[in-house]
Amino acid sequence: MGPFVSRRELLLGAALLLAAPMARAGAPLRIAAIDWAMLETLCALGLTPVAATELIQFRSDAVEPDLPADVVDLGLRGSPNFELLHLLRPDLILISPFYVRHEAALGRIAPLFSLPFYVRGEPPFEKALAAVKALGERLGRSDRAEALLKEIVGEIEGFRQTLAPFANRSTYIVNIGDARHVRVFGFDSMFGDMLARLGLPNAWTDRSRFTFAAPVSIENLAADPDARIVIVSEVPVEARSGLRNSIIWNSLEPVRKGRVIQLANVNPYGGVTAGLRFARLFAEAMLAGDRRG
Amino acid sequence: MTMRAWSFLSASLLASLMLFALAASSQVPFSQWGDLLAPPAELTLDKIILAYSLFPRAAVALVAGAALGLSGALLQQFLRNPLADPSTLGISAGAQLAIVAATLYVPEIVDGHRTLVALAGAAGAAAIVFALGWRRAFEPVTMVVCGLLVGVTAAALSAAMTLARGEYLMSLVTWNGGSLSQQDWSVFQSLGLELVLLGLFAGLLIRPMLVLGLGDTSARSLGVNLGGIRFAIAAIATALAGFVASAVGLVSFVGLAAPAFVRACGARRPAAIVALSPLAGALFLWLCDSIVQTVARASSENFPTGAVTALVGGPLLLWLLPKVRSMEVPHEARESVHRGNLKIAFAAFLVLVPVLVAIAFVVGPSGHGWKILSWAETLDLAPLRWPRLLASAAAGGLLAVTGAILQRMTGNAMASPEVVGVSGGAGLGFAAALTFAPDGGTVVVFTGAGLGALIAMLAVLVFASRRHLPPEKLLLAGVAVGSFSSAVLSALLAIGDQRSWQILSWLGGSASTATPATAIFLGILSLLVVAAALLLSRWLTILPFGPSIALSLGLSVRLSRVLLLLLSGAATGAASLLVGPLSFVGLVAPHIVLRAGLVTAPQHLAGSFLLGSILMALADFGARTATFPYELPLGLFAALVGAPYLIWLLGRHR
Which of A17, A89, A238, A269 is most worth mutating to test chain B (most B CB atoms within 10 A of its CB)? Predict the structure, then answer.
């Protein structure tokens, strides 16, 4: 935990500095983001929070948006550091219904703004778009939000045209848990929803199977032998050789025929930024594969 | 073994076979099974799945179940404790710590050498426990307590390690929750070979074990090398559990349920129990796994088998409970504890408490290590700090008093609120509140948890009071409820939606969730509970001597036990709302107080209360500062504070 101490020192130093009351008059709104999807939405609107949660993991798992180094890490999403948050004197705290448990405590520190992104069985991208609009209105940035929404629609349309030649084949979107298990993204996930918007059929017709413990055995991917498999986010190091040697994995038709696409890390519980990042990485990978073969 | 036992086993075999045949033939019709042995490249995918997934999965279920059954049977004979199973020796937690540490710091080694890493961890944990137990010639109770504490410390360490790296999810759901799904025959081959070898060794040890059953003193007088035999048995049991843990993850309850089932069916000789437990374990695990697979196909909800064995095993054990023969343990004379100086002990408490309060309010991590806050800063932060200080101190006091009550009442050194299943019940209530009133908010959730604790307690009460509430049965009932609860929670985690999120944060129990209202509530409740316990201290003085003495002194054993249990349940339910299900303050504090020489019931109760409060307040201070700004779970940190101390104490005393 060596490097941790210095980072921690930096953080509190920054926190105490920022807490100085003089910096307040006429300054822009000091916003703290507890929920990652809200954090993304805020950044997409061109604003930077003073603090957000679990930044070590956010930087490695979500990658985008690139956050400045002076954003204070508030600790875990499940138990954010209220004391540090209090010292930062935020004007507004962004959460989602996932944080109902902390609403009372957070509400005592600053006003809350909560928007839903992920509801079981409902496609999330529409909610992510609505969040851009709602947060833009709340922060007086409606123009920026409108422009952003137009931009997003345009980008998706562009990716859709790019990917049109690939629409004849359905796609499994998975995330590797260990050598025997995957998480599968269905229509009610950000990636599944985005796939549908790009005009490609999802090979997984059921709800998403994404939990902390990877819930789906690999042989479940055999149901559609004509599909391609898209692996979102790096395969965990400890699973790599197990997966390479797995008889079942290697017998899957898409694996035999080389129809497996590996994408870089994308936040599975993100907002518009994560959705677009997935679309862009996917389109790039498909085109690169097309040129190769 | 009775006829009925055999019919049970054959019914279970038949059911598993039928479910398996159903699954296998729906994958590939029987008529096409001819070429299954051909190389995989020539097979269709359906046949590959049948030959390299379904078949090996059934085989692994049988082998793993047998290994766990054998391991549990050996441990139970060896420790003469019907509650012993691989996890009470800290074996699984040791394996888990090794895997977590290796995954975080040297992930390349875990890739391909997972078994070795897990085994090294399991062996390391077992070695510590045996080294401590060796000083007391492997005295059973000491071993179990040591094992439990080593396990808790290992679990707390691995969680703290992952949390400090900012990996929240991994810390709580560390490694696949006992899924038996297979890709080829390699797991079966290695596990099968290990089981056969270790099973042969166990066979050689059955005769000496007969002698062991007589009790230490008599065995020694017959010239049996106690230490050597116990070491061999423990090594075999550890290795078996370690192999299973590394092959398929945590599969709970099989090691506990199989020998209990065999014994309930009338097997008495150690040889018979050890020989039949693997059979029972194998069939039990296979049946559970077949059911899991059938449910998965029918509903597309895929639960880890490890969680389901507990789901099935918990109620099964409750049902078996009235039939479980209390193991006849020849009681050794209780060693005399030196009487400590009361004045010094209480003076130490009186000095410690204000110091602790001061530290909690004015010290904080700052830009450069530690910082004494200014008066203005202290006032600024006080509204955030006093609720969590008061709440954690009250919760610690509640758990510790409950632990003292339960340990005195049952005469069992392992008794603690967690073991009696009340925390588990609170967890169930919490989950139920989330499921049925998802938008209810804090009040509904807290009410749910309180009701859950109460119901769990009543369940334990009803089942254990059938006869005269012998301590072993009470604890078994508690373990069953607790394990059932954790099985439900992990099943909900596997479903994975907003509920899982909240359950995770409850499992991680941080004191930062304490509000002024909950803090004051817990504070008042803790004072009431300790006052009530002190009023009942005469009972707690008499009860440890056994029911016959209590009766002869005119005490209604049943009434006193019911009242004490109600008190314990209310106290634990309230405390575990804050702390989460995992804290060993309730086990540790009464032990420390007793060892420090506060031996009479009022001293023991009051001392436990104070020490429990202090430990938990310290734990909260550590939890919020050790890896700032990442807060560690309070319960885990409490275990990290208390457990090593008790291990040291157990090793030091003779």
Answer: A238
